[in-house]
Task: inverse folding
């Protein structure tokens, strides 16, 4: 990673991140499931999933996947469009706000044998 004087950070993968852009931390819903010997993490607000051998690993990998996703859409100049399509709302002072989770529950479904 290399910083430049124009407020952009260049990453090893060639992507560019605008460091002058406003940023804010947001709490997002994450579900972690156990599938056999692996853990799978999913966040519906970015529609991103990943897996890992441990809960710690899968949390780290999900954060990395989200960071790469945001770097790529920002570099492509499509951040507003993509976040808007995912249901995020742009707020004047606080940047982007994720969709609000209204329910997270277990539902019973009939699975064919």
Result:
């Amino acid at each position: 990673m290399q910083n430049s004087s124009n407020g952009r950070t260049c990453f090893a993968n060639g992507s560019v991140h605008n460091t002058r852009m406003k940023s804010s931390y947001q709490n997002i819903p994450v579900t972690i499931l156990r599938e056999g010997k692996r853990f799978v993490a999913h966040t519906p607000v970015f529609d991103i999933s990943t897996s890992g051998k441990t809960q710690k690993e899968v949390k780290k990998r999900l954060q990395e996947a989200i960071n790469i996703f945001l770097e790529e859409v920002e570099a492509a100049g499509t951040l507003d469009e993509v976040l808007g399509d995912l249901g995020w709302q742009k707020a004047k002072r606080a940047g982007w706000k994720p969709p609000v989770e209204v329910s997270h529950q277990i539902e019973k479904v009939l699975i064919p044998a």
Remarks:
- The chain has one domain: 2-94.
